[in-house]
Design brief:
single chain
Length: about 375
């Protein structure tokens, strides 16, 4: 799906040494700190490793977060926080204000599941952890509710794109494809609306992407709805539906150009260059011409002035976030291990002295070259 899904830049993070001299007073505490350093380093390496697969990423994240749990939650599984909850600050860049054309069926399933898992992670953070922050997220920052909600909905929409591509390949009923496309367009519209109150200087590019995808899948919905109407001998209404598909496809084409010219975070993808995009234009044109021919020879029906209302509900293929939970606390965390951290030995923080602002280097993302466009088929 290279150059089809818009992505904001990867978040970069400042190094964390987990060195608590004097505080980590015993071998068990020192081992926890050492393991945290190595598992965090491994996890960050995988973000830019092109050979990484979902299993590798899950194993690495579970290894790190199972150790980090001892810094967050009480070991007795109560609602109490760990005494180490505020021992370490983490610094990240901000994605907005800071810094495959053809896939196999197995790859499509992996993309589909990964996006549902991602939606579940964003949802879990938004509902269960962000409210516990001692300092509320600033407006427009990555941990702010609007951005997290936009990520949840965008992941759902993109996962449904895979479902639609699969439904088209399997030649499912036009009514189902129209309903899925309509629901997907609504997802993109919802995500765009969620970002509408953000500063355009850093949200405009993302919003252009969401808007063009909304128009694209609305065109899909009207196109396949037109096929459904024609099959029901409602040729006049079918023509009007196809005309509306033509209008939204033209909007999507114009927005693709605007998106490419809009400055903002993240690499610029090129959806209009995909055969999957161009095929819709041909499909709309050919289906509309067919409807017009049949209406001229067979049906002689009046073409409505108003476009048909799309009140379509998909009964199959709708995407819900996969519920997410952090891994259990590592077995290395025991009461004795926790006791080995002596917070009374922690150096005093002299807040009267100004501290130099730490610069976090951006993540050097791999340069993924687009492959030959063979049509975004799922085989």
């Amino acid at each position: 799906m290279t150059h089809w899904f818009h992505r904001n830049p990867l978040k970069a993070t400042a190094p964390v040494a987990f060195n608590y001299y004097g505080v980590a007073a015993g071998p068990a505490a020192s081992k926890i700190c050492s393991d945290l350093r190595s598992t965090r380093a491994r996890l960050l390496e995988l973000f830019t490793d092109l050979s990484c697969n979902p299993e590798m990423m899950k194993n690495a994240s579970d290894s790190y977060f199972s150790l980090l749990q001892g810094f967050i939650n009480s070991l007795d599984e109560s609602t109490q926080e760990s005494k180490l909850r505020y021992i370490q600050n983490f610094k990240w860049t901000d994605t907005l204000q800071g810094q495959v054309p053809s896939i196999t069926e197995d790859e499509a399933k992996e993309v589909h599941r990964s996006l549902k898992i991602a939606a579940g992670i964003f949802k879990h953070l938004k509902e269960s952890h962000i409210p516990k922050l001692i300092t509320p997220a600033e407006k427009g920052r990555d941990l702010e509710a609007r951005l997290l909600e936009a990520y949840v909905v965008q992941c759902q929409a993109e996962a449904q794109e895979v479902t639609i591509a699969r439904a088209i390949e399997l030649k499912h009923a036009p009514g189902l494809i129209a309903a899925l496309a309509y629901e997907t367009a609504n997802f993109y519209q919802k995500a765009d609306h969620t970002l509408s109150s953000l500063e355009p200087a850093y949200s405009a590019k993302w919003r252009k992407y969401l808007h063009l995808k909304m128009c694209f899948y609305t065109a899909y919905a009207y196109c396949y709805h037109g096929q459904t109407l024609l099959a029901s001998d409602k040729c006049g209404e079918a023509i009007r539906s196809l005309q509306e598909a033509e209008k939204f496809y033209a909007k999507a084409e114009a927005l693709c150009k605007e998106y490419g010219e809009t400055k903002g975070p993240g690499p610029t993808v090129k959806p209009s260059g995909h055969l999957f995009f161009r095929k819709l234009g041909n499909l709309v044109k050919n289906t509309l011409e067919k409807c017009q021919r049949e209406n001229g020879f067979i049906y002689f029906q009046k073409i409505p002035t108003e476009a048909p209302q799309l009140e379509l509900k998909a009964n199959y293929g709708l995407v819900e976030p996969v519920p997410f939970e952090f891994p259990p606390t590592s077995v290395h965390w025991t009461p004795d291990t926790l006791a080995a951290f002596d917070l009374t030995k922690r150096p005093k923080d002299d807040s009267t002295k100004p501290k130099p602002e730490e610069v976090v280097k951006p993540v050097k993302e791999p340069d993924i070259k687009p492959q030959k466009d063979t049509g975004c088929y799922i085989s």
